[in-house]
């Protein structure tokens, strides 16, 4: 349950919000008043808060201690129209700092425009609209070259590239749906850091950081191989469906000269003759 929460942590003169789902970790830091408090709120409880915050002109946030457990706190968020009070959940939130890539582990640093990247990612994801696995669940391979960031499906379906400020060489694979959401959240120029293909990537902009776990390239190749095997099986199945039709035609042609097929028709002829004889005898009896 603790992974289904948003952490609100007041430390020093900062308010840190953090949340993760096992594949991604998002951390946002905001200037705040001095203090040391913490609350963990269920994500579903915060869904109704987001529309209110978008319409609010003024927002206040503070922490309240529990009466029975002073070391625990409630989170209180107030706008000019409504006040929300959230009871903090028990449990220890993961130490997210350990998941943030360090500079020594970074192989490539990139700065690019998310709007251009989002168009490229969405165009590649749309190539899979005919398949059982949707495009959003497919991997997008990201590769850096001099002055460019390349997005590739690695199965000969498509490749796009955008201009970027690049330092170093790196390569990683991210699920198309997660990548699209990350680009939308960053919204503008973003700094992107890539480690080795098995390590997490980091998106950062204006105090917001998004750590994204990769899809292994071997998994991406496995998907392509599975599709190729399925295509071969489908072609084989179609060929087998056509061959039985030809075989049936040959069987019928070979069965035509068999004389036994005409024998049942001889019996009705004998019956008709016996009926004629019976009709001829009736006038004699009268």
Describe this structure in words.
The chain has 6 helices and 14 strands. With 286 residues, the chain is an alpha+beta fold. It has a 7-stranded antiparallel sheet with strand order 1-2-14-13-12-6-10. A 4-stranded antiparallel sheet has the order 9-8-7-11. A hairpin with a 3-residue loop joins strand 4 and strand 5 (83-87). The chain is elongated and about 75 Å long. The model is unreliable at 219-226 and 246-286 (pLDDT under 50).
Order of helices and strands: EEHHEEEEHEEEEEHEEEHH
Total beta strand runs:
14
Overall 3D form: elongated
Arithmetic mean pLDDT:
79
What proportion of the residues form beta strands (DSSP E)?
A: 35-45%
Major sheet: arrangement of strands: 1-2-14-13-12-6-10
If helices are DSSP runs of H or I spanning 4 or more residues, what is the number of helices?
6
Structural class: alpha+beta
Largest sheet: 7 strands, antiparallel
Using the CA coordinates, give the radius of gyration: 36 Å
Low-confidence stretches: 219-226, 246-286
Q: What gap, in angstroms, lies between the N and C termini?
A: 106 Å
Portion of residues in helices?
A: 25-40%
Helix and strand topology:
Layout: E1 5-20, E2 24-42, H1 43-46, H2 49-55, E3 59-65, E4 73-79, E5 83-87, E6 108-113, H3 114-125, E7 139-145, E8 148-152, E9 159-163, E10 165-168, E11 171-175, H4 176-186, E12 189-194, E13 201-205, E14 208-212, H5 217-255, H6 266-285
Antiparallel strand pairs: 1-2, 2-14, 3-4, 4-5, 6-10, 6-12, 7-8, 7-11, 8-9, 12-13, 13-14
